[in-house]
Prior knowledge:
Layout: H1 19-28, H2 42-51, E1 85-93, H3 99-117, E2 139-144, H4 147-151, E3 182-188, H5 191-205, E4 209-218, H6 251-255, E5 269-278, H7 280-284, H8 288-295, H9 332-336, E6 347-348, E7 351-357, E8 363-373, H10 380-390, E9 397-407, H11 419-423
Antiparallel strand pairs: 1-3, 1-4, 2-3, 5-8, 5-9, 6-8, 7-8
Helix pairs in contact: 1-2, 3-5
Amino acid sequence: MNSTTGPAAGPAAGAGSAAGFSRRALLGGAGAGLVAGAAGGAVLGRAGAAASASAGQPGSGQVGGGQVPFHGPRQAGIVEPQQARVHLAAFDLLPGAGREELRTLLRRWSGTSARLGRGEPADEYESRIAADAGPCSLTVTFGFGATLFDKAGLAGLRPRALDPLPDFPEDAIDRARSDGDLWVQIGADDALVAFNALRVLQRQAAGTAAQRWQMTGFGRTPGATARPMTGRNLMGQVDGTNNPRPQDQDFAAKVFCGADEPGWLAGGSYVVLRRIRMLLDNWENLPEDRQERVIGRRKSDGAPLSGGGEHTAVDLAAQNADGTLAVPADAHVRVAAPASNGGAAMLRRGFSYHDGTLPDGSPDAGLLFLAFQADPRRGFVPVQRKLARGDGLSRFLRHEASGLYAVPPGAPEGGYVGQALLEG
């Protein structure tokens, strides 16, 4: 939300070396994921990955040929450029399924995700949905909800930061579309490739876990613009300008867990999910200059109202000629700014969604907000509290689903995600 629709926040505890994601940054496209599209080196990174794809292979064009390795110190789908399509889903363990069944499922899911990420058949439950496509920068990311640990006999290993998120003012959370034992994020630059991965994982879960909820989102397709640029959300605002960048010295400490977490989570992360409906009819009735004052940025290019270009730092002390604040007191960028929140920052990775219309005729559309961070207690929670109290943008948003998940580190070749938790 910072920059347009979400929190900015979270000082980090932890260490984690930037070297953990450098290999993926080269193969999957350099740069951090942005809220509503790929920025900067994202298109160039994918083009580089595509150029290395074998000639004559399915999907060997620039979009289809992009590959992101599944195995590595970090899970894929966190620091890589955002893809054009995403499926988010949560699963609950079935009665009678415990630690052993969970281990079998995660081993199966990890093997399948690695094969699909290379553009290979899934082997099991393959329906040839995407048989003529390449990997299309497919990533599959797994997380664990708080409820998983008791069910799997792992209560003593549940991290303290995984306590349920508190209720925030004006929340309208549908618990049937929230939480869950297992969280899955599937991203790809082709809708069929993303759907195929989801369908295979759903079928492999049968008998062990049942899907609790599923959401589908989208962003800008690589190559859709003549020049790489920060994407826009459904409010038309440039969104994601202030995201932390992997080249920042403190990036890993903001995003990845350190030695103060249980050993199985060191080098992993936490992700907050919020399904945020935008009240687009109300928003679109505002004059553009009023929209800009709600956000604190120009709509045309994302530059702050305090002056400069999109990437110019917001000057919260700047004044207009009449002495009023250039960036209004309740502007989103002011309330969400790291300077207003003790330097807090999170890696936001959100996607737009549109699920038709509501009974009153208004669009059921908005943002699938995702934020990766080292500690949600010092990141998302305090910043969202502040946004709920004083953010002018909150009048145009409804938070309707929510979740918090521990995201384990990546799996080595031959291993699976969560292995240190289940076998440590």
